[in-house]
Amino acid sequence: MSDITRHTRFEDAQGLIFGTLMCALGLQFLRHAGFITGQTAGLALLISYATGWAFGPVFFVINLPFYWLGYKRIGLAFTVKSLISVTLLSVFAGVMPQYLAFSNLHPLLAGVLFGFVTGAGLLALFRHGASLGGIGIVALMVQDRTGFRAGWLQMGFDAVLFALAFLWVPTDRILWSLPGMVILNAVLAINHRRDRYAAT
Prior knowledge:
The protein is an all-alpha fold.
């Protein structure tokens, strides 16, 4: 059965490209509205907002310490795919604003679209044995070992990050960011189920 369900390298490649492009699109909605999110992407956004540094390089550097944990706890293939995914997202997030902009985007719609689009992107990465590093690696490790859903663990981490964001981000932007965070983590909690989908 594992031979039937295992993804080919081509399928993995398209899954990583699809997933990172969807996440880059989600970030485009987020940054246009001046919102924040959770996990390492949220931390990178906060640093980017506070310093003016580009999101891509900050996001790439923040994730570096987590690859050793991913390698030790989950394996080489997962770590390599996650490194590729983080690199692709860093590049796509830097390039996409040059080709895509919004003249009219309601804050609520920006958050909702971010949640669903990014959720779809992360699901694709998870199904192809990858993540966007950081807390995602820890969340997947905990889910595999204990059954506690990755989405719920990430939501707890996000709540802490949102609390810290009040130091740098206007309150109304943080409040408008909440629907996107809830939708994103609910999408992962509901749809990323090892008891329903075979590992690949």
